């Protein structure tokens, strides 16, 4: 009876063993550690199968393996039986399969995953995500470029999965996304506690040409160069250094972009509040040249208060030169306040106003007729420019070069650099013009020649040349021309050929032209005048005497 029961039990167990399928190769199975020896763990995976796995496959990155006899573990069945009759199993491959399942779920749910950077590859790093290896691009390590990733190696930390492909075995993760998210949370918290106008302490983190970034305790604010001081700041490094702790005022907070604008000068008194009272119009002050441009120079009257000296207000005499040739940066200069616009925070200054107008000084010290001496600075088609005292020029017009000859011909005798003498003929302070005359140094030969000659005077001239249109005559060295029509009252006698060179004749002065330096002469006018005079003396329209009788009486009277 007992024998029959044993056979039945054996048969039942045999049937049960046939019904249970041996696990398929390439699947994950559960096993128990039954022994640890020679750096390996012997795992019983059931089904009368045992296998060996190196202990290092049970260790987390940077840690020692934590495994003991009796522990249950999941392993990957690579082969049911090898040449030694043992199952070929792997803990690492089991962890990988397990990790992929976990990571795919985390990726779908957009959750963070823990991992550790354990190696460096081209373009980035490798990360162990609990069995699965992921790629961490260099640009995704931190919010700023990382020069030394050593402190991050082997450190367990969260990552964000950016992309994964199980078929190809590719996973791309980011550490930067985690940092930016936490930073954004921290930034939002800090910004929530800040208010515009609040005074806070900050640490200078970075300096650029346009300003400095200040850490306010987890959030950065921009301190623009124009808000550092009331005075002009050429570069932030003039007053700030990296790592320095400073007091700043929150000027503006943009809740949408989380940008914070900071200011330092707002914590100081505004010097412009007292500008109008301190710098009255037409008052003189000493300042320092801070900047030079094409249109003028900026002068600092005090820290925070700058004025512009326009190029037109820099010099009385230097009109078309660059301001840099008149003043230099950091030079101390005396200026006059010309205009103040507090609303626009502008002060107009004058440099030349602190000195007397050189044309006024010249007019006072050199009245008309004063003799001066100077160097020929320039020669133009209308005259000479001569350098005078006070760095100003006077002009000698062509007509004032000489009493004799045309100015166009005489100007060719002068060269730049020649030292010439002249007399002041006119000073126009408003137009900044000084007229000079070289010919005025000598007496006017024309004036000397005509002496007491007036219009209507009878003078004796000498014939020097006979021409078809008239005759040329000379009086006291001056040439004049009598036209044919003026040679006689009688038309028949208006013949130039009846005169000869050297003849002396009496003529009447009809015109004196000081500009052209010519005398208008006429024989005809003399004859008419004589006739009129004879009529007045020896006859009248009532006497009935003939013209011949009157002239005869006049001639007899002359005899």
From TrEMBL:
Entries under Pfam families matching the protein: S1 (PF00575)
Presence of keyword Membrane: no
Keyword ATP-binding assigned: no
Domain S1 motif: start-end pairs: 26-92, 110-176, 197-265, 282-352, 369-439, 456-524
Keywords from the UniProt entry: Repeat, Ribonucleoprotein, Ribosomal protein, RNA-binding
InterPro entries: NA-bd_OB-fold (IPR012340), Ribos_protein_bS1-like (IPR050437), Ribosomal_bS1 (IPR000110), Ribosomal_protein_S1-like (IPR035104), S1_domain (IPR003029)
Gene Ontology MF term list: mRNA binding; structural constituent of ribosome
Protein name: 30S ribosomal protein S1
Species of provenance: Loktanella salsilacus
């Amino acid at each position: 009876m007992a024998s029959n029961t044993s056979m039945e039990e054996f048969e039942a167990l045999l049937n049960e063993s046939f019904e249970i399928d041996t696990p398929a190769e390439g699947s994950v199975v559960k096993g128990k550690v039954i022994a640890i020896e020679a750096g390996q763990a012997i795992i019983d995976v059931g089904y009368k199968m045992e296998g060996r796995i190196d202990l290092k496959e049970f260790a987390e990155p940077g840690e020692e393996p934590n495994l003991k006899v009796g522990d249950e573990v999941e392993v990957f069945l690579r082969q049911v039986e090898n040449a030694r009759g043992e199952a070929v199993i792997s803990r690492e491959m089991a962890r990988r399969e397990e990790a992929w399942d976990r990571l795919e779920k985390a990726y779908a749910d957009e959750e963070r995953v823990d991992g550790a950077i354990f190696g460096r590859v081209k373009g980035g790093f490798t990360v162990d995500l609990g069995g699965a290896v992921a790629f961490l691009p260099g640009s995704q390590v931190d919010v700023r470029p990382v020069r030394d990733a050593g402190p991050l190696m082997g450190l367990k930390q969260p990552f964000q999965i950016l992309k994964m492909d199980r078929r190809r075995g590719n996973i791309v993760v980011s550490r930067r996304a985690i940092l930016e998210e936490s930073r954004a949370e921290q930034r939002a918290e800090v910004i929530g506690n800040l208010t515009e106008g609040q005074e806070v302490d900050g640490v200078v983190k970075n300096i650029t040409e346009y300003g400095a970034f200040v850490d306010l305790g987890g959030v950065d604010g921009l301190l623009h160069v124009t808000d550092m001081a009331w005075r002009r700041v050429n570069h932030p490094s003039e007053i700030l250094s990296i790592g320095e702790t400073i007091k700043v005022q929150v000027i503006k907070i943009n809740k949408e972009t989380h940008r914070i604008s900071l200011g330092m000068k707002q914590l100081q008194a505004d010097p412009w509040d007292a500008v109008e009272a301190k710098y009255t119009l037409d008052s003189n002050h000493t300042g320092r040249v801070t900047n030079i441009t094409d249109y003028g120079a900026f002068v600092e009257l005090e820290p925070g208060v700058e004025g512009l000296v326009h190029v037109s207000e820099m010099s009385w005499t230097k009109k078309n030169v660059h301001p840099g040739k008149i003043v230099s940066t950091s030079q101390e200069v005396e200026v006059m306040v010309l205009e103040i616009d507090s609303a626009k925070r502008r002060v107009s200054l004058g440099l030349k106003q602190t000195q007397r107008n050189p044309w006024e000084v010249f007019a006072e010290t050199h009245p008309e007729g004063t003799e001066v001496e100077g160097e020929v600075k320039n020669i133009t088609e209308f005259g000479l420019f001569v350098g005078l005292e006070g760095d100003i020029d006077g002009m000698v017009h062509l007509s004032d070069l000489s009493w004799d000859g045309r100015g166009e011909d005489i100007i060719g005798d002068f060269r730049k650099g020649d030292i010439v003498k002249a007399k002041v003929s006119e000073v126009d302070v408003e137009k900044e013009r000084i007229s000079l005359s070289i010919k005025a140094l000598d007496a006017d030969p024309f004036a000397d020649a005509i002496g007491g000659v007036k219009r209507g005077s009878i003078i004796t001239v000498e014939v020097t040349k006979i021409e078809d249109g008239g005759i040329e005559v000379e009086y006291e060295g001056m040439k004049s021309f009598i036209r044919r029509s003026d040679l006689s009252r009688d038309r028949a006698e208006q013949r130039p050929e009846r005169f000869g060179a050297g003849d002396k004749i009496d003529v009447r002065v009809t015109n004196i032209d000081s500009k052209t330096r010519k005398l208008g002469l006429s024989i005809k006018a003399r004859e008419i005048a004589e006739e009129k005079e004879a009529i007045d003396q020896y006859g009248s329209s009532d006497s009935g005497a003939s013209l011949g009788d009157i002239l005869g009486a006049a001639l007899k009277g002359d005899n």
